[in-house]
Design brief:
Number of strands: 12
Largest sheet: 8 strands, parallel, barrel
Strand content: 25-35%
Shape: globular
Distance between the termini: 9 Å
Structural class: alpha/beta
Helix content: 25-40%
Length: 239
C-alpha cells in the first residue's frame, strides 16, 4: 500500500526537512481539503502525523485529525505524541484505523504491549525512526543507543506486525530511500511488514522497494515537490 502523508503543525499541512521544526514549508492551510483530494485520486489510505504532538507528547492537532477522519473514508493512520493508553484509546474511539507508536515503543514498552494486547497488531503500528541504524525519539530530538533491528524484534515478540521505518537523515531530502537499511532489516526480520518512509522521490523508488520485498511506503515531500503525482501513486498502489 502507498500512503500519502500529511504532516500537521498548528492545524496546517507542512513538510519538515530532516525532521527540523525550524525548516517547515507550508503545504496546505486546509488539511481536510488535501485529504479529500488524495481520496478523489483513488488512494484509500492516508498517513497523518501530529508534528506538534511528537514534540510535546500531547494531542496538539486533535480537532484537525477529527475533521480529517470525518472527511476521509479510507484507511487512516496517525502518529505523533501518542504516549499513554487513554490518548491512544481516544484516537481509536474517534475511528482511526491505525495508530503509530514511536517513542513509547522504546521508553514505555509495557504500554505498547498493553495496546497490542487490547487492540491487536493491525491497529497498533510501531514507528521506528532512526539514524545510522539507531533509534531516534521525541520527535527525532533525541538519539538512543538502541538498534532499530533490536526494537523491531522486541516489539514483534509483543505482537506487533507493522513497522514504519524512517531514516531521519533521508526524510524530506528527496535523496531516495535508505535501501541498504531497509533490505538489511527485511533480511534479518522477514516476518515483519516494513513500511518505507523518508527520501522517496518517484515511482522508480517505489518499484525498487517493491522488488526488494518492501511492499508498503509513505510518500510526502515528493508529492509536493512535483516529482510524483497522486495519479502515479494510485497506479502503483493498484498493482
Amino acid at each position: 500500500m502507498i500512503f500519502p502523508a500529511i504532516d500537521l503543525k498548528a492545524g496546517q499541512s507542512v513538510r519538515l526537512y530532516q525532521g527540523d521544526f525550524d525548516q517547515a514549508t507550508l503545504i496546505n492551510t486546509d488539511p481536510v481539503e488535501q485529504a479529500q483530494q488524495i481520496q478523489a485520486a483513488g488512494l484509500n489510505q492516508l498517513h497523518l502525523v501530529d508534528l506538534d504532538g511528537a514534540k510535546s507528547g500531547q494531542p496538539e492537532n486533535f480537532a484537525t485529525v477529527e475533521a480529517v477522519r470525518a472527511a476521509f473514508t479510507g484507511t487512516l493512520e496517525l502518529g505523533g505524541g501518542i504516549r499513554n493508553y487513554d490518548l491512544a484509546k481516544r484516537y481509536l474511539d474517534l475511528g482511526l484505523d491505525r495508530l503509530i507508536i514511536g517513542s513509547a515503543a522504546l521508553t514505555d514498552p509495557d504500554l505498547v504491549k498493553r495496546l497490542l494486547t487490547d487492540f491487536g497488531g493491525n491497529r497498533i503500528v510501531i514507528g521506528v525512526d532512526g539514524k545510522d541504524g539507531q533509534v531516534a525519539i521525541d520527535g527525532w530530538l533525541s538519539q538512543s543507543q538502541t538498534k532499530m533491528s533490536t526494537l523491531i524484534q522486541t516489539m514483534m515478540v509483543s505482537g506487533a506486525r507493522h513497522f514504519i521505518v524512517t531514516d531521519v537523515a533521508r526524510d524530506g531530502t528527496l535523496q531516495g530511500p535508505n535501501l541498504e537499511l531497509l533490505t538489511d532489516l527485511h533480511a534479518q526480520l522477514p516476518a515483519a511488514n516494513l513500511v518505507a518512509s523518508g527520501g522517496i522521490r518517484n515511482v522508480d523508488d517505489l518499484k525498487t522497494l517493491q522488488a526488494a520485498g518492501i511492499k508498503d511506503a509513505i510518500v510526502g515531500k515528493a508529492l509536493y515537490a512535483g516529482t510524483v503525482s497522486l495519479a502515479e501513486l494510485a497506479e502503483v498502489d493498484a498493482c
